[in-house]
Amino acid sequence: MPRWRQLRDAKLTEYENAADGWTMVSNRADAARIRTEQEMAGPLRATQKGEAQTSAERDLTRLSRNYQYIYGECGLVRTTLSALASELSGAQKKLKQALDDAAGLKFTVNEDGSVEYPRSTELPMAPGTSLGSGVAKPGAPVPYLPGAGEANGDPDKGKAEDIAERISQAVNSAVEIDNRYARILRELKAPDGLAVTDDMLVDEARDMGDVQKAVGPHLDKGGIPHGKSPADNRKWWDGLAQEQREEYATLYPAEIGALDGLPSVVRDSANRIVLDEAQAQVKHDLAALGPDPPRTILDAGGRTHSNPEWNIWNAKGGTRFQNQLKGMAAVESRFDQTGVDGLPPAYLLGFDLKGNGHVVLANGDPDTADNTAVYVPGTKSKLAGAGGDIGRMMRVWKEASSMSVGQSTSTITWIGYDAPQSIAPEAMEKHWAYEGAPRLDNFLDGLQTAQGGPDASHTTVIGHSYGSTTVGAASKAPGHFAADDIVVAGSPGMLVGDASDLDVGRKHVWSEAAGDDAVPLGGKIAHLGGYKWGVQTWDGIPYDAGPIQTVPSDEAFGAHRMHVDTSGHSGYWDEGSDSLKNQAAVVVGRYDKVREDN
Questions:
Q1: Domains in the chain: how many in total?
Q2: Of 143, 166, 187, which residue sits at a domain end?
Q3: In terms of Cα–Cα distance, which of 557, 543, 545, 538 is closest to 598?
Q4: pLDDT tens for each residue of 58-112
Q5: What DSSP letter does each residue of 40-82 carry, written as one string?
Q6: 3-state secondary structure 249-299
Q7: Are residues 180 and 329 in the same domain?
Q8: I need a surface site. Which of 9, 250, 300, 304 has the fewest CB within 10 A?
């Protein structure tokens, strides 16, 4: 059958129906992954112990990983088929228009795509010509213009050449489209077996890149909002058809997972694809470097020297890969603790390996939470150390939930900015806070957008160490800071001189500082506090007056100074401590439960 007939008669609805089928498989796999984790693995951890529990949990973890892979890979097949049908539809439409034009002129389209037309009887005949028909083929030297054609000026020749060229272009376009998508569809397959391997996830990432390149006209990455407000992001998302949302989420998961304002369940599903593929790729890259060499070696005299082999291994990314894997393992460990001691499901609201790595992880769905807490860690926070920060918010969740029976609480670890990685000189510089502030503001606005407005949830921002400086930079900036309360612990300063300078107001600023925590004093040395005219006091006794620098633990700052029964710079989240209970009381709005120092 001639190619133009194949294109004309192609039933593209068959591709669309197939895409719908793959959509159903993809969506069911994502739903099954959620059920496996929340309705099966969670209760199992909460009620069972011993070897049987360990074995069952291992099987459920593998099942969940399989569903996650099916969700992403079937989503790619779905998008590829949809794009194939869309692009072929365009070529088919152009062909049919050319065929309709030929029929209207009573031209005949031959098997080879050439167009036969009747010679005009109204024009003088050139020597050597006769009445009858002519045949036009694609590739005419000049495009059709009125009056163009043979030397005798026959306009039908130009029209026929134009139609033949359009038929040829439509068919050639369809052939190119078919070849391009056939290659991709051949690659979108998985080996037999019950286990999803790291190699399969690395291959899935390559597949994703290939599909992205192929479907540009159908699903343009440029259509995803960039640099817009969370409200604009949500408006864009809500304006998409459901099938478009599903295609974007599985084809561009990193971009969708990073969009503040989108539903948390959408960001979580997208970011889990990013996490799985990133973890598999980093494992592959680390394995390619070979075994980890000793960092030091001994010479013949027994002296210790740096090992050149380790230096080469490290320069190629060895330590960086190990740190990245450590952070990703901490995130997965939190996934695996759902149900333990009543912990709710975890939602991955942000993840990337840029710089020192970023992760945003919620305990419980913040979109539906009555109370929300966002924790901003300080100096040296990064993906590699996420485990400790995640653990702190797990403890805040447990304490807050025990104080608010009948209410839901979500606590979020927000490693969403580039924190200073050294006490000196980085933590003595303000630019980290000012650069991180817009990101924090966007995230909080996004939470509020997803929740349905400023009154949907009571929101508390908790800043530790330099994280409180970032909170200060965000809260003192012009505009609305989307939070009801601010809690700071071990703060070196918030870049303002008085609690009333922060957007939430003096009555909603709370401070904790252990007696042996040197960071507040260090913050003054670095000038991270703010200045005001006033009087500095200690237990009510004045000791300085005039233009004074204050940090939140100073009486002159004006914050609620909460009782602290822990020591050091990192003890504020010790289980069972008043320091932890005070934070939890603020998070759930039980201000009467907060113990303050006089």
A1: 2
A2: 187
A3: 538
A4: 778 888 888 889 999 999 999 999 999 999 999 999 999 999 999 999 999 999 9
A5: IIHHHHHH--SHHHHHHHHHHHHHHHHHHHHHHHHHHHHHHHH
A6: HHHCHHHHHCCCCCCHHHHHHHHHHHHHHHHHHHHHHHHHCCCCCCCEEEC
A7: no
A8: 300
Within a domain: residue 313? no
Q: Is residue 487 part of a domain?
A: yes
How do 371-376 and 409-415 pair as beta strands? parallel
Lowest mean pLDDT, pick from 119-128, 347-356, 509-518: 119-128
- The angle, 0 to 180 degrees and rounded to 10, between the axes of the packed helices 308-315 and 318-336 is 60
Strand partners, 414: 360
Q: Which residues are CB-neighbours of 47 under 8 A, at least 6 positions away?
A: none
> What is residue 497's predicted lDDT score, i.e. its pLDDT?
94
Domain extent, residue 400, equals 325-593
Residues 6+ apart with CB under 8 A from 580: 395, 396, 399, 572, 573, 574
Give CB contacts under 8 A, 24+ apart, made by 151-156.
Answer: 151/126, 152/120, 152/123, 152/124, 152/125, 152/126, 153/123, 154/119, 154/120, 154/123, 155/120, 156/105, 156/107, 156/117, 156/118, 156/119, 156/120
Q: Specify the 3-state DSSP secondary structure of 87.
A: helix
CATH number at residue 538: 3.40.50.1820
Whether the model clears a pTM of 0.85, i.e. scores above it, the answer is yes
Distances (CA, A) of 249 to 258, 496, 591: 11, 41, 41
**pLDDT, tens digit, 9 for 90 and up, residues 237-270:** 999 999 999 999 999 999 999 999 999 999 999 9
In a domain, 302, yes or no: no
Residue 276 lies in a domain: no
- Of 187, 208, 232, the residue at which a domain comes to its end is 187
Q: Do 467 and 437 form a contact (C-beta atoms < 8 A)?
A: no
Per-residue pLDDT tens over the stretch 153-197? 678 888 899 999 999 999 999 999 999 899 889 888 877 776 888
Token pair, residue 349, equals 């609201």
Burial of 500 (0-12, 13-18, 19+ CB in 10 A): middle
DSSP SS3 for 312:
helix
What letter would DSSP give residue 360?
E
